[in-house]
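ok so I'm stuck.
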Amino acid sequence: MNRTPTKNPKSKRLVINVLIILFLAVGTFVAIQFAKGYRPNLQNRSLSGTGLLSVTSYPKSARVIISDKLTTVTDDKLYLLPGNYTIKIEKDGFHPWTKVVPIKNELVSSADARLFPIITATSPLTFYRVSNTAANIDGTKIAYVLKDSPQDTTNGLYIHSLAGSLLGSSNVQIAENLPKDFSQAMLTWSPDSSQILAIFIDKTKATKTTKEIEKISSAYLLSTKGMNSRTLSDVTLRLPLIISEWQDQYAKLNLPTLSLFPKYMIDILSNKSANVFFSPDKEKVFYTPTANIPLPTNDIGSLLPNVNSTPETRNLIKNQTYLFDLKEGTNYLLPFATGSADLSKELITTVSATPSANLSQIRQLKAQFESRLTTNLTWYSNSRQIILTNKDGVSLVDYDGLNMVNVTYVQPLDGFVTSSPDGSKLILLTNINQKTDTYNLISFDLK
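replied:
not stuck anymore, here's the structure
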């Protein structure tokens, strides 16, 4: 009797192992391609490459409209075929945000929107009448002079803490308005915010052929930590030493930040620009070149897989204002910026060889962090937006010049506007529902 020969069990096991290996290899390949963004294209019967779009916003849960189609809500990630897409992020009660974002094969593109309310709630931070405001270097405190209080002793120089106070009021008086009226002084914060220099100026009326002459009549150095005595010592004779010390402190603050930038930008910012103001995170800077300068090719951006899609400007024109982004090496024109005809800021990187005390040097110290004195631009606290003041009031605009939205149509007195450290509020010295000559610090809620 003949028997049918059986297959070799070893051969069968080998075939199974080969099939398993092939399955794992194909599965791994498909998983890798899927992770890279490749998706099946049924029409072409192939795998089509895609890019990843990350859409985020503050506040969250905003609608995402891509090329006029409601697609998702923030925060989310979407795979899209390569191409340019118009991304609109909107939420009821907030200004919409729009940008054209290119999607590239196997790369991540981002649309990160900070939405601002259409109608802002306001609340007063001060009462009666406020004048002569000055914010400190990190934007956490505001010095101001209160007048017209029912009690004379409560009129005077105050410090308002934007970060709040665990011990009580955010408004702390540090000097009375007697015998000196600090509303008439030029107030300048020290670089470490521990002191305020109050300069009183005598002005001699000019004739038809001569300019008005200004002269320092007295100067006082006040502590910002508590109430100062009425009998203040005049520090006019010490001003050269004070100015020299503060210049040294500013140089020590500016030089490390300056060193982070490319060599060509260090030269431009140090020697060929005015009104140089670094962002709070030190990764961006806006500036006004004093000559026509061509910027070299963006070597930083060429090494990155993806950069901001907003077209940049590499040819600098004298007296135009630009913004340079250190992380991407990109440079953007800010056409809405204007400068002051009275004062131009020089970036302090060294101490004067011959210490002296003149109003020009003191104004330069004050202008180191109070950009409103030299331009209509101020950094918003998150470093991704800029505060803009003009005839239409106060607006916020993305750092690349896009998505400008108006926050309020009221005008700030002397251009004073700043944001709270967490970005939840804008603080203006302005007039709302008050007498025409009465101004107070008013908070505008941006949440």
